[in-house]
Input
Amino acid sequence: MQITLETKPYASLETDALVTPVFEGDDPIQGRAAELDQLTGGLLKKLATGGELTGKTLEFTLIHAPAGLKAARLLLVGAGKKDQFNVATLRKVVGAALRSLKAKSVKNFAFLAGGALPPEDGSQAIVEGLLAGDFETDKYKTDKKDKKIEFVALVGFPEAETAAIQKGMARGRIIAESQNFTRDLVNEPSNKLTPRVLAEKAQAMAKEAGLAIEIFDEKKIADLKMGALLSVAQGSAEPPRFIVVTYTPSNPKPGAPVIGLVGKAVTFDTGGVSIKPADGMEKMKYDMAGGATMLGVMRALAALKPNVKVIGVVPATENMVGGKAQKPGDIQTAMSGKTIEVLNTDAEGRLILADAVHYAKQLGATHLVDAATLTGAIVVALANVNVGVFGSDQVWTDKLLASAKATGEKMWQLPMDDEYREFIKGSFADIQNIGSGKGGGSITGAWFIREFAGDTPWIHLDIAGTAWNDDAKPWLAKGPTGVALRTLVHLVQTF
Ligand code: BES
Ligand code: ZN
Ligand code: ZN
Output
């Protein structure tokens, strides 16, 4: 999809559709809506008076052959109250407009900015909304509908702001394409995306982006004594892989901080011997979303070139049942030397993250973030609305929460009191991989990982509820969301 900045007056623009947001209020005919009302000879006022045009979020009003405009259609999209309008709403408005026009076989349109946000942020959000909205999960359908938006023009921006707008547009494309790269990986079924295939795709991405990459096979993983990762992998016919992607800025300062981004990549989670129920198990192909997110972040950083070193660490394995699978009660020794009693083989994400977090520290990470589809309990706590955030260092955690706010990704911090740590004290080993039956499942999962982060400032993002859309949204296809990528890119860029 081509996206360009158009400086021609929008009334004379020949396009399949002119799209603009309308804000909710006592009188929705303000700003752009007032201009369009004038151009169309009072049409918008009439619609507003009749109650058909209110500006309520994602209300759609489609007008064919609007008088006074060269556009074939005028699409007014409700954007809610102007004082609550932000980049997140703008992305939704734009994405929903694209998806609705695409469904109508429209090939091109122009988006008329309302001027409610700073031009650079606004143009970035528009491009992000367009590209994320355009992503489809129909890769394996043989009767793909031939519907495609080929061209979108951004119109109505002040000409004096052209440089800033183009900067925002370029950044928006990098971030959205990286988010779609992540979503594409998450969308792959486990027979098409094994740990080996994920490693190959990471390698191809790194080569194209100009990032350094190392991939460890099962032998190297064993040499490194990553016993926790190996314990999960041992039940599978598919060997594990351990992926390390590194971004180094052009003038790295000695002693400067290094960010370690660790992502869980279980390409399929059956639960292992503590097997999951059949109902809904097919969704466990998305249990590699954390790893895919970190690879997407690295891809974006390669193009955005922040001034800090970042290491992406992705342990990849299946969690299978079989004659070689680990069993409840087995005791494993992690790379760090800590012993783990595996009371439930379905709590495998924390096991592979234990070794990955330890390894990231060995590589010199001074600040850690992990992302993982870690617990069903986070869906109970926060549903599919907020990412669960856990942190060992409030200054570092606050930075991430600020980035989440700036990028419009909903995240909510949960407590990590020492009392919860007691839940995972081991009876027969140093620690056990599930809490001893007192609830707080997401917190005990986080505490388990934290044991391996030690004193290094660390954040854990539980994306089990938010990495997958069970139902299509007007602005986003059903399936992988690519959540947390924007926040993490922002966090690194503002470090
Ligand atoms: N991959 C699952 C968590 C999950 C659940 C992701 C739902 C996405 C949607 C994880 O490996 C798991 O099975 N966790 C267990 C932990 C329990 C055994 C302590 C869970 O949440 O049930
Ligand atoms: Zn599991
Ligand atoms: Zn899992």
About this structure: The longest helix spans residues 162-187. The radius of gyration is 24 Å.
